[in-house]
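tl;dr need the bound structure. longer version: we got a ligand (zinc ion) that a collaborator sent over and nobodys looked at where it sits. i said id run it. heres the input, straight from their email, havent touched it
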Amino acid sequence: MTSTTTFAFSAGALCLDFANTWGNRGDPCADRLGSYPDLVNWACQGDLIDDRGALRLERAAGKSSRATGRVFDQAVALREAVYGVFSALARGDDPDPAAIDVLNRLLASALPRLRLAPGGACCRWQWSGPEDSLDRMLWPVARSAADLLTSELVGRVRECASPSCSWLFLDRSRNGRRKWCDMATCGNRAKARRYYRRHRPGRGVEAEADG
Ligand SMILES: [Zn+2]
């Protein structure tokens, strides 16, 4: 079984991109992570693994459907924990300690796999461990969430203002008042709704001046 789903990587942090694989939490059909092959495909599109690594994972997944199912459940739990934590922070609420526990459990298995490898000016982080570890794409997600939670940028996490979109994003605008995940989609729809309200029949010229 292969996945042909296309994923977006525009949120500004890997963990938020992962949360955004379910773009509208009010609509179960909007969940793009339907199976383990989707998870491998997501990791491949996000450059967490290459094509060769994806093939290895798909082969390993074929050997044990029970282990694969467990990892997929773990991935969904991680995603919902990431969404829960950052959505709460975006609203100005405290994150649920149970969601932080989910992150801590994943970090406990992920962080011991980090190694220094040659690269960059001197060294870079590299994930070690068997290349066919079914959950290896979850390690960088957990680390990304931990990095963001401990960074000053955590105050810049937003949830899209559209009622039919639950995308999270990092607001790097100068004034820190970005409302939409993407001006080309949700932003434009909101603009069109405002335009319609202003210009619908029966509205006078005075009303036009209020926008
Ligand atoms: Zn949106």
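gonna send this back to them w/ a short note. The helical segments are 14-19, 36-45, 51-63, 65-91, 97-110, 138-149, 183-199, 205-208.
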